[in-house]
């Protein structure tokens, strides 16, 4: 990969925040002007079309007001006068995968069980409900139950269903890694043991498929749930805190803020012991109001502990509390600055997302870190 440039990270950051506009069918120049693979809503802080930007997996919000568009496989910017500037960035779209056209024996569409992210990542939320989804507890950027209500997915995916879909996705579409997350349960394991059962089933069906699992920190007296995930065959784990600022946590994720940061640190330390350095990750969201210098300092502390801080922008997603309140996406310049500084710390520590076996950092699509060399 070529060395990261300030201009490249800036463009990636601006597009990550401002998205791209999609031309109506009557004016579409070619397939390279559309985005066939979309992932609306869901559990994470992204609502995007999936493309490859200069060969890197990238998720881009679809925004009719954006000055960016796709033209003949290139990213362009349209000016107020109608002029078009080629930004020197190649964009390849990702075709609808073949496994989406299949259904299970009991009539569930494979697409409702797991989705393609990027061009080779299979992703699923194994339990699409969350005990923290009440109005006073919900993460304000999350739409985990919105996609359930729309019929896009099912409430609980069984280990057998996930094994069946994973086998087909690998065989038909060349999937090379899998990510399994879960809504938080009432159990002390926070849903980790169901994840472990799902992991074991996929591992048996597709032995060579790298797998990342994602969950909240288990209760302090049940850290053994993390070992259960490792024993089931998971290669990597994500334990997502989103912010290390307690005031930000109380405002943006009041339910998760009831879990002390020390509990996250205990789970991260145990996970690094089990899975190894650079096989444990956490999301850090830019745009929630955290001081950028403190965010970078916290990311550096995570890196020193062997945890990869996956830096992403806050994106206003319909169906979320933050979208309803009109919370804006961050300034692209802020995102670029934070991303570049965290990427530099990752490079200094010899930690790259591309070196991970599976997971959000290994995919890299929702962050500009990969473009910045992180």
What structural keywords apply?
seven-stranded mixed β-sheet; 374 residues; alpha/beta; TIM Barrel; disordered N terminus; 13 strands
Notes on the structure:
The protein is α/β, with parallel strands linked by helices and 374 residues long. The protein folds into two domains: 6-93, no CATH class; 98-363, TIM Barrel (Alpha-Beta Barrel). Helices cover 33% and strands 18% of the residues. The chain is built from twelve helices and 13 strands. The strands form two sheets. Strands 7-8-9-10-11-12-13 form a seven-stranded mixed beta sheet. Strands 1, 2, 3, 4, 5 and 6 form a six-stranded antiparallel beta sheet that branches. The longest helix is centred in the C-terminal third of the chain and has 18 residues, at 332-349.
Number of strands: 13
Total helical elements? 12
For the largest sheet, list the strands in their spatial order.
7-8-9-10-11-12-13
- The CATH superfamily of the largest domain is identified as Aldolase class I
Series of H and E elements: HEEEEEEHEEHHEHEHEHHEHEHHH
Using the coordinates above, name the CATH class of the largest domain.
Answer: Alpha Beta
Assign the structural class, choosing from mainly alpha, mainly beta, alpha/beta, alpha+beta, or little secondary structure. Answer: alpha/beta
Rg over CA atoms = 19 Å
Q: Uncertain segments of ≥5 residues (pLDDT<50)?
A: 1-5, 26-33
Please describe the biggest sheet, giving its number of strands, its sense, and whether it closes into a barrel: 7 strands, mixed
Helical percent range?
Answer: 25-40%
Write down the domain tally. Answer: 2
Which term fits the overall shape? Answer: globular
Distance between the termini: 11 Å
Q: Average pLDDT across residues? A: 89
């Amino acid at each position: 990969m070529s060395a990261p440039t300030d201009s490249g990270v800036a463009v990636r950051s601006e597009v990550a925040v401002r998205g791209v506009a999609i031309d109506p069918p009557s004016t579409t120049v070619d397939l390279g002007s559309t985005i066939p693979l979309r992932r609306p809503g869901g559990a994470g802080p992204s609502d995007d079309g999936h493309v490859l930007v200069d060969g890197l997996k990238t998720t881009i919000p679809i925004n009719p007001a954006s000055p960016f568009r796709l033209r003949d496989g290139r990213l362009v910017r349209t000016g107020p006068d109608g002029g078009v500037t080629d930004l020197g960035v190649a964009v390849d779209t990702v075709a609808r995968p073949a496994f989406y056209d299949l259904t299970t024996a009991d009539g569930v569409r494979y697409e409702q069980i797991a989705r393609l992210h990027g061009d080779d990542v299979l992703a699923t939320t194994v339990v699409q409900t969350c005990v923290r989804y009440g109005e006073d507890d919900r993460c304000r950027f999350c739409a985990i139950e919105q996609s359930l209500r729309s019929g896009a997915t099912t409430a609980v995916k069984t280990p057998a269903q996930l094994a069946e879909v994973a086998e087909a996705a690998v065989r038909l579409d060349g999937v090379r890694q899998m990510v399994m997350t879960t809504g938080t349960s009432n159990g002390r394991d926070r849903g980790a043991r169901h994840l472990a059962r799902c992991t074991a089933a996929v591992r048996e069906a597709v032995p060579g498929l790298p797998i990342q699992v994602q969950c909240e920190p288990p209760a302090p007296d049940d850290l053994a749930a993390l070992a259960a995930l490792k024993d089931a065959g998971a290669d990597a784990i994500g334990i997502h805190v989103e912010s290390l600022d307690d005031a930000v946590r109380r405002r943006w994720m009041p339910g998760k803020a009831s879990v002390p940061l020390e509990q996250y640190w205990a789970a991260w330390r145990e996970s690094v012991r089990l899975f190894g350095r650079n096989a444990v990750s956490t999301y850090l969201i830019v745009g929630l109001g955290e001081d950028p210098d403190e965010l970078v300092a916290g990311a550096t502390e995570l890196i020193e502990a062997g945890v990869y801080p996956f830096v992403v922008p806050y994106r206003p997603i319909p169906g979320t509390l933050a979208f309803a309140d009109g919370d804006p996406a961050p300034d692209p310049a802020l995102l670029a600055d934070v991303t570049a500084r965290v990427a530099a710390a990752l490079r200094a520590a010899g930690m790259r997302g591309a070196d991970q076996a599976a997971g959000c950092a290994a995919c890299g699509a929702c962050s500009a870190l990969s473009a910045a060399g992180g």
